[in-house]
Amino acid sequence: MRKVIFGLLAMLLMATACSSIDCPINNRAYTKYRLQGNVKTLTDTLTVLTKRQDGQDTILLNKSVGKDSFELPMSYIRTVDELYFALTNKLNQTTRDTVRITKTNYPHFESLDCPLAYFHTITGVSTTLHNIDSIVVNSSNVTYDISQPHFYIYFKSGH
């Protein structure tokens, strides 16, 4: 019985001696897009896709409507992220814009207990001009903080 009590006390002491590290739950850096100009809220349905390393499409934002902003993840180590903004109108017609974001990536280390994350510095953005009028970089540093928009996106009227 004494061995059990000493064993429990030893485990309790070890558990309280360990430090607690506050690792982020989601260690992915996101970019925030805010609608600007004549279109302040999405009336058409927006879906954002990208291609994975294996060439398959993956959906980052699915059928968003009525929003004035949205967040999208960035790739970890690619220097250019290519996104496809697909807008579907009330007649179920879809048109796509291609958005290319150039960036530099740098590893972000918090502690040995936390997984490695990547932060980014946006160096440029370009887009086709079907539905999007323009995209402006507002904040070029992409970290865990999405309180300020990284991009202002201007859609053409009617979207």
Q: Please identify the structural class as seen in this structure.
A: mainly beta
The fraction of residues assigned to DSSP E strands is: over 45%
> What overall form do the CA principal axes indicate?
elongated
Query: Distance between the terminal alpha carbons, to the nearest Å?
Result: 74 Å
Strand order of the largest sheet: 3-2-5-6-7-9
Number of strands: 10
What share of the residues lie within helices? Answer: 10-25%
What string gives the helices and strands in order?
HEEEEEEEEEE
Q: How many helix segments?
A: 1
Radius of gyration (CA) equals 22 Å
What kind of sheet is the major sheet? 6 strands, antiparallel
Unreliable residue runs = none
Give an overview in words.
By secondary structure, this protein is mainly beta. Helices cover 10% and strands 47% of the residues. It has one helix and ten strands. It has one helix at residues 2-17, and strands at residues 30-36, 45-51, 57-64, 69-73, 80-88, 94-108, 117-127, 132-137, 141-142, 151-155. The strands form two sheets. The protein has a six-stranded antiparallel beta sheet, with no helix packed on it. Strands 4-1-10-8 form a four-stranded mixed beta sheet, with no helix packed on it. The chain is elongated.
Task: For the structure shown, list the relevant keywords.
single chain; 159 residues; mainly beta; 6-stranded antiparallel sheet; 4-stranded mixed sheet; 1 helix; 47% strand
Give the SSE layout.
Blueprint: H1 2-17, E1 30-36, E2 45-51, E3 57-64, E4 69-73, E5 80-88, E6 94-108, E7 117-127, E8 132-137, E9 141-142, E10 151-155
Parallel strand pairs: 1-10
Antiparallel strand pairs: 1-4, 2-3, 2-5, 5-6, 6-7, 7-9, 8-10
